[in-house]
Amino acid sequence: MQTRLKFIFAGILLSLLLPADSNAFAQVAANQQNDPANLVSPNIGGIGQLLTATVPYVQYPHGMARLAPITTPGINDRYLADKIYGFPAGPATLMASTGAIVTSQEVYASDFDHDFEVSTPYYYEADLQTWGIKAELTATKHAAYYRFTFPSNAHSHLAITLPSDAHLAVIGDHAVQGSERIYGPISGKAEQGGETREYFYAEFSRPFHSWQTWHDNALSHNAQEEGDHIGFVSDDATTQGEKVEVRIGLSYISVEQARKNLEQEIPSWTFEQVKENTKAVWNHTLDGIQVSGGTKKQRTIFYTALYRSLGRMTDITEDGRYFSGYDHKVHNADGHDFYVDDGTWDTFRSLHPLQLLLDPAQQEDMIRSYLRMYEQSGWLPSFPSIAGEQAVMIGHHADEFILDAYEKGYRDFDVQEAYAAMRKNATETTMLPWQRGPLTSLDRVYFEKGFFPALAYGEKETVPQVTGERRQAVSVTIENSYDDWCVAQLAKALGKNADAAYFTKLAHNYQNVFNPAIDFMAPKSADGKWVAHFDPKLGGGQGGRDYFTEVNSWLYTFGVQHDVAGLIHLFGGRDKFNAKLDQLFVEQYGTSKYQFLGQFPDATGLIGMYAQGNEPSFHIPYLYDFSGQPWKTQRRVRQIMNVWYGDGPLGIPGDDDGGETSSWYVFSAMGFYPVCPGSPVYEIGSPIFAKTVIRLADGKNFTVTANHVSAQNKYIQSATLNGQPLDKPWFRQSDIANGGTLTLEMGDKPNLHWGSAVEDAPPSMSAPMQTAQQ
């Protein structure tokens, strides 16, 4: 995608310099047959099942300018908010109003109604009903573009507010610039060794003849303000229907760079042209996957999910340079863009593999970005933000991200450095949840005894590094054993045989927390004894966090993504494994659903104990492919898509987590999924479209054709891959790297024989690729 987007960006830049009627490039893109950008409904998920609703961003794919109305503070379900408080201007908030001049953002707020709203990836429009003003916005990579249509009023305003540690300056009679400090994500305090600031430069399409600034509610005519709660407001008469536009350049480097970004990307007052160009970018990008068939609702859900899968990570490269929050310096990008804003506990599972499928060069730059962060900070981050590492959740899952690209043949990064970074994280920093620091006594138990220890029954916490997130001991063991497998695989590829053997041993540590007496993953205390009185369903306290990460043992028992064959062996074979997996989807709560969700609020999107609203579940429906019953995978993935994904504000089963939950749908709707990122294979599910064409790099296509597919015809009867019979419920990256076709014959009854033999199972650590091919 990166190569294709560089071409389209060049065309758009040229079009900005031409008259609007010469913008043939945007016109051609707008007239595409499918026009997928107009199928996207950004308000899907605007009411959250748990913590975070989706945001209807207008932006370029992976763009730095991410724009959406700022709605009523405290109403987390954004779709239900009653007011718009303003619009993003980088670190500032921009708002239009009429009437008296005030210094309160709350007073400038306006009622709005979704029935008078237009929301797309490239354009947003709302009526500010309190003021009788129409607000419109669009975006480029580093700039925002607003258009406000005013009523006739003697006192019409455009206000810019900044809440804290900010600078603001009025430039002549047509521009305002400023900045605000971004505080470190871990402590909320000043970062070590420097500061991170976000800058903006805003130009107005008409001069402001009367204006004021404020500081702490005191109005003045100071051309510069500094500190907390500062702002600017213009005050001019407008005629009925008068349009005032505001163009805003953004930067993390300097206010001068913000102005330069604006001049490069929006050099003239051409709102409609910029809007159409951004639409063309989205049509071109979303056209990277073309689907035929299905219902309009399914296509809307699909393209909205794809749009959400292409926002994260954020490219903060500006004019060949970037600011790093890891050493607080500006660096040359050297031809490779710099990306931040990731959360690998979420995104390694399907978001990065999806992006890799569409644009491997861009993913290589993302890995290069991780390695730059490692060089600048000494650690490979897990949740990098613009201001530095967030150290959120558990595991070191940049390992999976890096290995997945390497194993799929994309290696345009320093592999030796990547290995050194992975090895350092694996051996020198604690595994404790939400931590980044030296090894603790708990980590040493993992290395020496093969599991991360839980507190014994009744034991009080004495390890000072354990925070309110508690130990999450079983999940930490399982997820770090997967990380260790990734380190082992890359060590093996690089000929580091001693390391490969060492980390392969650690990769088996998940076996040490499987209790065969109960057939569940279970906690052990440091003395190696099973924790007494453990309840696989309700054990672990709030969120299960004594033992697990947000969910319970019913889910984490199936959390061994790198060695499903080994997990099946622990259960005593396929029959017992399948019986347990069947039970997962019907097991009830052991108490009332109200009480269960009170303890496990993250377990949204429930089907039995299965929780589609939380990432540890995502691979589980595909495990039947490993255990000889792929028709059950086909049934379950269809059920999950039908039940838990919709085209309205409640259409996301849990937190979307920057597109991860959406990326699961994109893969599953296409008919396959990567159970184990780091292993270059995909497991087959049940597509919902008659035809899906994925545009690969270098102009090649991979096509999934599902003959006779329908709501009832969800079961695979037979398959061919590139014209050859396919009897296995999986295929390799190498099968699609040069383009090809997967053809599935669909029917309304399960084929109990297709893909069910032991030798048909996908590869695992205990049954590697060579064995699986025999």
From TrEMBL:
SUPFAM superfamilies noted in UniProt: Six-hairpin glycosidases
Region (Disordered): 752-774
Keywords carried by this UniProt record: Signal
Glycosyl hydrolase family 92 N-terminal domain segment(s): 40-251
Pfam families from the UniProt entry: Glyco_hydro_92, Glyco_hydro_92N
Domain (Glycosyl hydrolase family): residue spans on this chain: 257-748
Signal peptide from the UniProt entry: 1-26
Example of a GO MF term: carbohydrate binding
Keyword RNA-binding: no
GO BP terms in the entry: carbohydrate metabolic process; glycoprotein catabolic process
Gene Ontology cellular component terms for the protein in this record: cytosol
Superkingdom, taxonomy of origin: Bacteria
NCBIfam families, per the entry: aman2_put (TIGR01180)
PANTHER family: PEPTIDE N-GLYCANASE PNGASE -RELATED, PUTATIVE-RELATED
The protein, known as: Alpha-1 2-mannosidase
Protein species of origin: Edaphobacter acidisoli
Lineage: Bacteria, Pseudomonadati, Acidobacteriota, Terriglobia, Terriglobales
